[in-house]
Amino acid sequence: MAEAFLSIDGERVGTDALKIKKAREVADFLLGGVHPWAKLVDCLIVEGREIVVMELSVEVGQAPVHPIDPIERIAAIFGAADDNYPEVLSLRPDFPRVPHLSATEHEFPRGLCLYEERYDDLKLRWTAPNFIERIRGWFRETARGTLHQEDQPLE
Question: How far apart are CA 135 and CA 15, in angstroms?
């Protein structure tokens, strides 16, 4: 039986219907099949925002500190204004409460806090491959318990 994931309501579209540059770049990169550990699942449009749903293979090790799955499904949400980081949500209904989650209005889906630098500083060098690897690295380091350093205060 397939694992149930949280769903996102919206209009399902092909990658060619995506108009937000970064959403289209991520979807096209995933669709191209050049990344062996990332797969495009779906594209949606919701209230002017574009969502790219993907599955990422994660190196979790034999004894993970936090229960990160070897395959994680996430949604990356892009706004047309490009004035903030893309929002990244875990679509696992039982995603654990771990360090470096973004504050959200609801308990689920839980948001991943990927960056500490200002978006204005990051966005000029932002690329789809780096974005996907940043997410995979977040999962890997969270599984190992090394994402949050001991001397680092919680937000």
Answer: 21
- What backbone torsions phi and psi does residue 6 show, to the nearest 5 degrees? -65, 140
Render the burial of 60-75: b for 16+ CB within 10 Å, e for the rest: beeebebebbeebbbb
Q: Cα(83)–Cα(114) distance, rounded to whole angstroms?
A: 16
Supply the pTM of this predicted model.
Answer: 0.89
Q: Which residue, among 135, 129, 126, has the nearest Cα to 29 in the 3D structure?
A: 129
48 torsion bin: left (phi>0), alpha (psi -120 to 50), beta (else): left
Tokens found for residue 36? 């062996």
Q: CB within 8 A of 2, min separation 6: which ones?
A: none
pLDDT score at 13: 96
Condensed to tens digits (0 to 9), the pLDDT of residues 61-106 reads 888 778 889 999 999 999 999 999 999 999 999 988 877 777 777 7
Query: Coil, helix or strand for 143?
Result: helix
The model's pLDDT over 97-122, given as tens digits with 9 standing for 90+, comes to: 877 777 777 767 988 888 888 899 88
